Amino acid sequence: MGEWRGERQARDARIAAGRAHADGKIVPAAAVVDLLEAILRPGDRVCLEGDNQKQADCLARGLSACDPEKIHDLHMVQSGIVLPEHLDVFETGIAKRLDYSYSGPQGARIAKMLYGGQIELGAVHTYLELFARYFVDLTPNVALIAGVSADRDGNLYTGPNTEDTPTVVEATAFKNGVVVAQVNEIVDTVPRVDIPGDRIDFVVEADKPFYVEPLFTRDPAAMTETQILIAMMAIKGIYAEYGIKRLNHGIGFGTAAIELLLPTYGEKLGLKGQIATHWALNPHPTLIPAIESGWVKQVHCFGSEVGMDRYIRERPDIFFTGADGSLRSNRAFCQTAGLYACDMFIGATLQIDLMGHSSTITQSRVAGFGGAPNMGSDPHGRRHHSHAWMKAGREGQIVGDPALMRGRKLVVQLVETFGDKLVPTFVEKLDALELARKIGLELAPVMIYADDVTHIVTEEGIANLLLCRDADEREQAIRGVAGYTAVGRGRDRAKVEALRARGVIRRPEDLGIEPLDADRALLAAKSIKDLVHWSGGLYEPPARFRNW
Amino acid sequence: MGEWRGERQARDARIAAGRAHADGKIVPAAAVVDLLEAILRPGDRVCLEGDNQKQADCLARGLSACDPEKIHDLHMVQSGIVLPEHLDVFETGIAKRLDYSYSGPQGARIAKMLYGGQIELGAVHTYLELFARYFVDLTPNVALIAGVSADRDGNLYTGPNTEDTPTVVEATAFKNGVVVAQVNEIVDTVPRVDIPGDRIDFVVEADKPFYVEPLFTRDPAAMTETQILIAMMAIKGIYAEYGIKRLNHGIGFGTAAIELLLPTYGEKLGLKGQIATHWALNPHPTLIPAIESGWVKQVHCFGSEVGMDRYIRERPDIFFTGADGSLRSNRAFCQTAGLYACDMFIGATLQIDLMGHSSTITQSRVAGFGGAPNMGSDPHGRRHHSHAWMKAGREGQIVGDPALMRGRKLVVQLVETFGDKLVPTFVEKLDALELARKIGLELAPVMIYADDVTHIVTEEGIANLLLCRDADEREQAIRGVAGYTAVGRGRDRAKVEALRARGVIRRPEDLGIEPLDADRALLAAKSIKDLVHWSGGLYEPPARFRNW
Q1: Does A334 sit within 8 Å of B444, measured CB to CB?
Q2: Which of A170, A404, A444 has its CB closest to that of B444?
Q3: ipTM strictly over 0.90?
């Protein structure tokens, strides 16, 4: 018959041991190490909340200060590897195995540690995939999370950066796990309940507010005319052409330029209300002019963005907010929205190969792709139509019964032919493949596979891969917009001209766009200060973006 | 600059109007119509919680009793169309437009009403897709939900059938919507908080407990030897062959037979611990013997199942449960788990065409497919490997660079060549296409498209579609397991034998299975009573399944 309450009893014992260091559920910051050593067991699966933005940094420091004699061989299962402490624990032996999604700053160190055998890598997931595994085979034994405030019963207010927290807590608390929340302050009553107290076992009053990174702020002052040209082509040749209303933008300068062109170039084209009305997007500061000009109907957010809190509070018709007035973000639902409810994902990449496979991985970094693999994939389970989706589906259907025709998500790569330091974006072979070979990864770190990409936009034009009839046409369509890179110079000129004649490739002039019109004067805001002005002073940019 | 608080102010006004019929948040059942007429506005998007199982039936009756002069042209956005009242509102004009996912009993009536123009159909979604749209373009203005109990602050206990509720409430409450919960009783303190009270505006004490349907109970007494043979082939030829540990089963008798064969046939094959350990599945009673025999490590559930509550409470190491002891289900997360964290989806269908497209739609019913399109699709965003997934990927990769190889989800159709009343399962053309033409649907109601299906299992054998090199091979592989149906008789015998020689088709004897061994004696439980016995008396089947 077996033993059916072993996990449950072990959880109760962990909590009882932790209570020795707590006053009810409340634990002082000084007792974090004691608490963690009391509730953790060697080999545990642990989610140390490292989100895309918000970091449970007080708990991260505590974990890294634990005694490796007592706590070792942990299996870390968390979205973000962001803080140095997230990797320190692998050096001391506290942690051993890693399953994650995204690492901005720590990508190079992860690659070195993988190569040196200090980390046993599970996989580099897309966010929603990692969340899915929390409920199946990567359920955490202990979750270490972060919020703004909690009451003494553990009712938690996450503030605008709700992000991954509800998902992590649900998987842990309902499967015999222990949940520890660090908060900036203990209060009598939380402004709203993001997580009910009966799912939170311990509350640590942190020594300082949790760390959060402004990852989605793009300074308009840094936008180039090439980016503006590409943005104009995307608006006229894709947004308008397909009538894209529901979408997700990447985090690069190209899509930020599009946001800033909507109230100017988009307005001139008469597109207001016709495109870009419903968004799955973080609260990008560069979206403020479009919001203020009445382009945007609503935005659901993965997380928040530093400095946007007051603006969001004053725009409750646009954003998802609580009765307390602040943003309620939710990465799991926003990723689901990006997958199934958006007609287009448009973003940038570092490398694209001859078939259209793309990756942001270079030979020395294992950074992960966050949400891109999920949102940049065509969901075969989708069963609702839209104008944009059906048009793409018709373009993409080469063979088969038209009665069985289904639509396609638009997955658009927006790149300059040469990236930073004049490194070519178009390559014969992705660096990711070499990295996979060197480190011995089971699966090459491809961000978006070729079969999901529908369009590539560069300063040379738009390649519509849906219209390509075979692999050779596809290769020539990609070469045909690859500019003066080796890949671009390797084009078959006759074939490229034939593709252009069919509209598979479209140059700026084919779209009625004069490259000389791509001027910074078109940007609705030319600086961070302009964004503050557009917001009526509600947007409060972090110090590093202020130069006035 | 626009008006940024219109929605928020409208919400506040609705709540104020509703308060006239409430004592605090509490509304007597007799005042439901008054409440709904106070908070609803013509044209509203409304989610009337009709889940796959749990029904907000008191609120459904209330809505259908509203005055169509006051409340009309509603846009209903809900998972399930299950109760007669869900369609009555379209006859009276209270509702006009419909977006939904699943309709068991009402499929025929929906088809008639669509044909008669009484319903303006948006789309028939897969669950997760509809949830995604709640956050983008189908955000409800009003949500009418159901729970077991609530306190006077609105803190809600859903009981084991949490299902869609957290998702519906999150989309509504944080986007200026009004949330009304019907509960079986008002209590001083809820057993656990499934939804915090600050997201619930009104609590209606219903006149009787909410309706819930035992949709996932299959009586072992009704299982046939053909189903047992098919189940044996699936276990030996697919589960064992690929080493499937993480999976979702459909709700038919075929997969229920597999559940009952694990502790007998599976045990004999030495597969315990090697297959079927981690599940995204409702608490199927037929899984009890496998759980009791130690096959199952954990199960995450979409919803619950009538009669399974006590059993689940006593098996906290297997199921996700709250501190109160009862199941915490969650359809959104379990669908996400089925999409991204399972290596296999295996289920049944009514029709399969020559390419492998399938549908459960007949000419007179628009039932919807619930979760099948989502879980029965290959998620292109997946980036973690597993043995099963990589093996399927290798089999399916015909061309391309092996360094770019990725895995494949196994999507298996488990069918008898002839279904109920000897109607052939294999057809030249799906009835769904004719229905789509007749009703004028934009998209044919295909359950799973051919490109996602990897295997078809019938009593004649297994067709592995991954190994087919072209459309002709695929057609012959399907014909080759289609038995004496017209499609089966239309096979090219030489081609089918060639496919068999290559292992694309495998007969029972190719798998070392003797059809005469497919005996009911192999079932771990032969009746509902046996299941009760296996559960130690904890499973309490509904009356209709009791015949002792």
Answers
A1: no
A2: A404
A3: yes
